[in-house]
Design a protein that fits this description.
The structure is a single chain. With 394 residues, the protein is mainly alpha-helical. It has one domain: Amino acid/polyamine transporter I (Up-down Bundle), CATH 1.20.1740. 75% of the residues lie in helices and 3% in strands. The protein has 14 helices and 2 strands. Strand 1 and strand 2 form a beta hairpin. Helix 3 packs parallel to helix 8, helix 5 crosses helix 6 and helix 10 packs across helix 11. The longest helix is centred in the middle third of the chain and has 39 residues. It is globular.
Length: 394
């Protein structure tokens, strides 16, 4: 049993930091998800979608954290069973599918990052990523919380610096893109093959931006039950709800910074994101600051390790809790087997490619989480919370 810690400011922020660390992943960190779900609507349209995403994340996280505080369900399996009964297995199926997609994305990203940054074989990146994930899983909850929280601070510093430099260098282009509102605008540029191409962004309805905001939030909501171990310290409704609301805001802030940093290069960023490249490469191709690119890549690589660790940690918790029922102690070999086994499966999934995984896999699984998690939690979950006899609201 873990020692209770004073519930100060840091404890309020920890769930948000870990949620952000897991959600940022390969597609978010490279800017590809941001470009494909928000950048396609222009800066203002993208911001509308991000507000929707933030609100959905915050509300669902607050309800979920309070649900788990009331019923003391701090792994995704216990939570889904308490929420849906035997049908809770459907949530686990969706979670496993999402985990496999995400593990594939981060391995594909790690491979391409190391190859482009150093010229080494992409397998070097995969091996470093895998070793980092396995190390954190074997070290356990406390180490994961400390490392992921610390890396969130590093992430914010680097992203803020990145945005400031972009504003200084491309202020006129960013201003023009912002002035375009949700209207259509086109950019022409030279792609990696040396061809001059054009890409159009914006020009879509506000409703379309709102829908993409909902879609992006839904498949990432599956991550919230993966970090339930961070809210074990919550003893009151206020603590659980505030942790959830902060998680929603903390999770979306780096996306806002990236969207603004892309600025007037959104057409090229969107093109790259949909043509087996990365959105941020459109920016670094014009900044011409190798030192910043290296720092950005190092920080991003760290987030990939965090993301993989967060997803696998949730499965490890689920298996250990199930194995330990009835007073039994889970076998010592179980955690290493889970960590190594799932890491290797993620490597295999990565062969499908980054763009295909984001465009096809994510777009499909979001509807699964809407059905087996979002709708049940805001209906059945809220009802059960209100009816529970031990529901201390103080």
């Amino acid at each position: 049993m873990e020692t209770k810690k004073k519930f100060g400011l840091f404890r309020y922020l920890v769930p948000g930091f870990l949620f952000q660390s897991v959600v940022i992943g390969g597609g978010y960190g490279t800017g590809n998800e941001i470009a494909q779900y928000f950048g396609v609507h222009g800066i203002k349209g993208g911001l509308i979608g991000m507000v929707v995403t933030m609100l959905v994340w915050a509300i669902l996280a607050a309800i979920t954290f309070e649900f788990c505080r009331v019923f003391q369900t701090f792994d995704y399996n216990s939570m889904s069973r308490q929420l849906l009964g035997k049908v809770g297995i459907l949530y686990e199926i969706c979670y496993i599918i999402l985990m496999l997609i995400v593990l594939g994305v981060i391995n594909a990203t790690a491979s391409s990052m190391i190859e482009s940054l150093t010229g080494w074989t992409g397998w070097t990146g995969v091996i470093i990523l895998s070793l980092g994930i396995i190390y954190l899983i074997l070290r356990g909850t406390e180490t994961i919380e400390k490392v992921l929280s610390f890396w969130s601070y590093v992430l914010y510093v680097v992203y803020a610096l990145f945005m400031i430099i972009c504003f200084v260098k491309f202020s006129s282009a960013i201003s023009a893109a912002f002035s375009a509102g949700t209207g259509e605008y086109t950019g022409s540029f030279v792609n990696a093959a040396g061809e001059t191409v054009s890409q159009t962004v914006g020009g879509q309805s506000i409703g379309s931006a709102v829908v993409d905001g909902f879609k992006y939030s839904f498949y990432n909501l599956g991550i919230i039950p993966a970090i339930l171990y961070t809210v074990r310290a919550c003893e009151t409704r206020k603590q659980a709800v505030v942790c959830g609301l902060l998680a929603g805001a903390i999770g979306v802030i780096p996306a806002v910074l990236l969207l603004f940093a892309m600025g007037g290069m959104l057409p090229e960023a969107v093109y790259n994101a949909t043509n087996n490249s990365t959105a941020v490469s459109a920016i670094f191709g014009k900044i011409n600051m190798q030192w910043l690119f290296v720092i950005f890549e190092i920080v991003l690589f760290g987030t990939l390790i965090e993301t993989g660790s967060g997803f696998i940690k949730a499965v490890d918790d689920r298996i250990e809790i199930a194995a330990g029922k009835g007073g039994r102690e889970s076998p010592k070999w179980m955690r290493p087997v889970v960590a190594v086994g799932l890491t290797l499966v993620g490597v295999a999934v990565s062969t499908f490619g980054l763009t295909a995984l984001i465009a096809k896999g994510y777009g499909t699984i979001c509807w699964g989480f809407l059905i087996v998690y979002v709708i049940p939690m805001i209906s059945i979950g809220v009802h059960k919370i209100s009816r529970h006899k031990n529901n201390e609201a103080t």
